[in-house]
UniProtKB/TrEMBL annotation:
Name by which UniProt lists this protein: Uncharacterized protein
Biological source species: Amycolatopsis mongoliensis
Top-level taxon of the source organism: Bacteria
Lineage: Bacteria, Bacillati, Actinomycetota, Actinomycetes, Pseudonocardiales
Amino acid sequence: MGDPYLRCVRTAELAALAHAIRIVDDHGDLNHRYQALIDDSQVVLEGNRIRLTQARGLAKRLVVLAKAAGNAMRAQLTRTERDVLDAGLAQADGLIRTADSGA
């Protein structure tokens, strides 16, 4: 697979992750520190390509943000929004597991 610090991924491939971050941004009742994580994530996703390590960092951020937003946010989402959030979390899980397996 190569060095993850040198390997890049197209941000278009991270669409599920980006959409899930947007759902948390739109519906989560988060403090300014979590909001800063969202804002930073959206800036990173504006580029065409990012390092694989950055993508993994975004994945971990999404997990943290979703946990911080909690079940109250999830309860107010429509079925479609929950599906979008779940798809993003699934993509995040895949990126995190890849990192944990040393690939």
